[in-house]
Amino acid sequence: MHKARTAQPRRSVFTRTILWTTTMIMILVVSGCKVDPKVEFIQGAWYYKDAHLANIPAESAQVTNWVFDNYYFSMDSCCFYKANYSGYYSITDRDENKLTLELYNMRGQFGGTVLYKDDTMTIVIKLDPEADTIKISGDGPYARVGP
Question: What CATH number matches the domain at 37-146, 3.30.230, 3.40.1000, 3.40.50, 2.40.128?
């Protein structure tokens, strides 16, 4: 006589593919959520006062403020040279203690030049985590003034 066989479930190729794909997507999503410590470091408000104009009456210093907030930025500078603009940034290069940012979709003015959404600009930010300061395209050091 024949023994009764119990049907054993077989995993189909389709099921294995779905499980593998789902696992890979989850791994990529989780790894993509990690924030680069350098990017996290620049988040917040930064202040720099350049007193090189101390001998000019009514122009005691050049004061510049930068704010970086989750890929949005704003910049305001006064008094000898006026500029205020904002927009978005992307990171184009990373070094040990340096980030290169491309600014885009900008609005505002830079000296006598009006900035439009099609304009782009590149800045290099040097980080000094020990002093909690940054230098932006050679200017600075900027001190952190807000989260």
Answer: 2.40.128
